[in-house]
Target: Acetyl/propionyl-CoA carboxylase alpha subunit
Amino acid sequence: MLHISTDPDHIWEVDYRTPTALHLNGQPFAWDVAALGPGRFQVLYGGRSYEAEVVSADYIAKQFVLKINGQRLELSAKDRFDLLLKRLGLSAAAAVQVNELKAPMPGLIVDVRVQPGQAVLKGDPLLVLEAMKMENILKAPADGTVSAIKVNLRDNVQKGQLLVQFS
Model:
């Protein structure tokens, strides 16, 4: 089962699990499709013919752009796992922006590798924290811009202490 939408007000439930038929919003959907070339199709539905082209397909984000008779159409798909996460209130969790980095353990700041205003990518080194005679490189948890560094070189920090803020 998929939920296909063009915007929040236009959502269709598509059941493709039956090997012989497709159901749209609980009703059988009778159509014929013929491939015309890579990403191009001829669709017959309701006594009419439509030319469909797949302009782009992002299977990870489940975002698609089609052209139907030359008209651009952007679609989003949600499968049963996406719908379950939404029902559990977890769907927005991935979209939450990380806006701070806290110390994972007590230690000593031995290197500061960024400065306020600097753009960073996920995984870029920010600080070096020495703890138990080992140097730990603390990396950016997400893409962003450093708005403030809340520690100085040679500062002792406690676990959970705010180190870097992002905007």
